[in-house]
């Protein structure tokens, strides 16, 4: 003690890109993106999602990278270092809280995908009658013991990787798992698009039908851009903080945003052509992965093989995201309280697993217990993804756009002051993206009444005033 521990850094730029892409690519891409695309009419939705990634996703990601890289500190202390006098660091605390909440339910869903992988390998899954899949899934999530055992197994893997540290844990495993994920996903996609009758699914993804969009579709697309790119809770600040000064941030942010988007699209092409070819329901919602897809695999030659590969790759995608979520509080506790990585990872992993268990039980035996009308699982998902992430993202945007000096922000992002790209980025950051994010946020709160809108607007103004963004 006494002497400050040397902070770890990524071993290579590729290692960093793979780790950050590993964070971004997760259940959001393979479970959520396909089902919300299915519910919102297919390719027209994809087009607005792409716009959301470009207008909101990329600017926030670059902002998070630059805050982390410049300060070489965790999600809370990075804000303190850049703005010691003002309470911007609150954004970091919100991020740490969001990490606890997201990882607890994320671990539960990842546990389901592990169960399905195991059942696929052992042949039990596909031996069911197609009509039984919904009940089979319902029985799993309502079971008091089984999903918890798998959730714990998943959390043990997550903790084990984070214990290894930045280079020997997160980076090493991302370098192995990410290429594997891509190969497995391409195999499933190839199978899907070569099925007879696949073209209806391909059309669904490529021929836009704008009439299928509703106003909510725009907001769903924006909200999902956040979740999918792991933005708004300091994950990319934390990963950026292990980056050395000689890497170029804009190209890194482009690579990660593009990788995340491409994988989501490939997941779409792996799923819909098969769903259409076999006459299944594209708009099945959250159950698409667990209730519809087993029926698809069942009808394929070598179905057990493809089902195993598919659910296995979802586990991999979830794992490389889960480690990035755990790393946010781990980095904070090691820096703030001088805990060792081992102590922080084990204690935090344990606490998060316990919360996750409560979330899992809330879908079965504890189903009667609700907080503001939602069970624990839904409440954790809702509050973190719909409130904490958009709000955190909004503050990050405002911080880099207004809280930092223009020159400082440009320099930290590796832009020269006259860079056109840099200027466009700053304009979007200041004037376009905040409005969009605010909209998503208000929608998530179900703001229909003018009164609620007025209250939220007033709170925002007070916050901005406190933060010194407006006023004087
Ligand atoms: N981006 C991940 C996914 O798409 O599954 C989820 C996620 C990871 C959200 C990390 C937020 C985060 F900080």
Walk me through what this model shows.
This protein has 472 residues and is mostly helical. It has a single domain, classed as Hydantoin permease (Orthogonal Bundle), CATH 1.10.4160.10. It is built from 19 helices and no strands. The chain has helices at residues 13-24, 27-39, 43-71, 77-82, 90-121, 133-142, 146-163, 166-193, 199-206, 215-228, 235-240, 249-277, 288-298, 303-336, 341-361, 376-403, 406-412, 420-444, 450-466. Helix 5 packs across helix 16 (376-403). The longest helix has 34 residues, at 303-336. The protein is globular. The relative contact order is 0.18. The mean pLDDT is 89. 4-fluoro-L-phenylalanine (PFF) binds next to helix 1, helix 2, helix 10 and helix 14. The site of 4-fluoro-L-phenylalanine has 15 residues, from helix 1, helix 2, helix 10 and helix 14.
């Amino acid at each position: 003690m006494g002497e400050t521990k040397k902070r770890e850094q990524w071993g290579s730029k590729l290692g960093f890109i793979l780790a950050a892409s590993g964070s971004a690519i997760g259940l959001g891409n393979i479970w959520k993106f396909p089902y919300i695309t299915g519910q919102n009419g297919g390719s027209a939705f994809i087009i607005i999602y792409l716009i959301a990634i470009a207008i909101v996703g990329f600017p926030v990601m670059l902002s998070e990278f630059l805050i982390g890289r410049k300060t070489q500190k965790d999600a809370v202390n990075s804000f303190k270092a850049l703005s010691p006098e003002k309470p911007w660091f609150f954004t970091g605390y919100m991020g740490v809280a969001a990490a606890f909440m997201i990882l607890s339910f994320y671990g539960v869903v990842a546990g389901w995908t592990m169960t399905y992988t195991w059942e696929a390998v052992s042949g039990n899954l596909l031996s069911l009658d197609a009509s039984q899949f919904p009940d089979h899934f319902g029985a799993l999530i309502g079971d008091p013991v089984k999903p918890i055992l798998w959730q714990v197994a998943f959390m043990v893997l997550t903790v084990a990787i984070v214990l290894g540290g930045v280079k020997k844990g997160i980076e090493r495993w991302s370098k192995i798992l990410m290429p594997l994920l891509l190969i497995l996903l391409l195999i499933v996609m190839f199978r899907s698009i070569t099925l007879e009758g696949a073209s209806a699914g391909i059309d669904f993804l490529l021929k836009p039908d704008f009439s299928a969009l509703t106003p909510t579709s725009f907001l769903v697309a924006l909200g999902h851009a956040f979740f999918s790119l792991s933005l708004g809770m300091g994950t990319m600040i934390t990963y950026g903080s292990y980056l050395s000064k000689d890497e170029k941030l804009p190209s890194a942010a482009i690579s990660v945003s593009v990788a995340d988007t491409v994988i989501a699209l490939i997941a779409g092409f792996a799923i819909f052509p098969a769903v259409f070819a076999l006459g299944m329901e594209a708009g099945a919602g959250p159950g698409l992965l667990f209730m519809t897809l087993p029926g698809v695999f069942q009808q394929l030659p070598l179905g057990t093989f493809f089902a195993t590969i598919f659910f296995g790759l979802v586990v991999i995608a979830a794992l490389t995201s889960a480690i990035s979520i755990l790393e946010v509080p781990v980095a904070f506790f090691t820096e703030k309280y001088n805990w060792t990585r081992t102590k922080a990872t084990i204690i935090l992993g344990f606490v998060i697993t316990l919360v996750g268990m409560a979330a899992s039980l809330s879908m079965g035996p504890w189903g009667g217990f609700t907080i503001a009308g939602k069970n624990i699982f839904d409440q954790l998902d809702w509050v973190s993804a719909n409130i904490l992430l958009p709000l955190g993202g909004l503050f990050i945007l405002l911080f880099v756009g207004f809280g930092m000096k223009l020159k400082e922000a440009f320099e930290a992002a590796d832009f020269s002051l006259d860079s056109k790209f840099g200027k466009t980025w700053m304009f979007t950051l200041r004037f376009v993206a905040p409005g969009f994010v605010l909209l998503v946020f208000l929608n998530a709160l179900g703001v229909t009444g003018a009164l609620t809108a007025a209250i939220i607007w007033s709170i925002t103004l007070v916050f901005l005033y406190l933060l010194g963004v407006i006023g004087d």
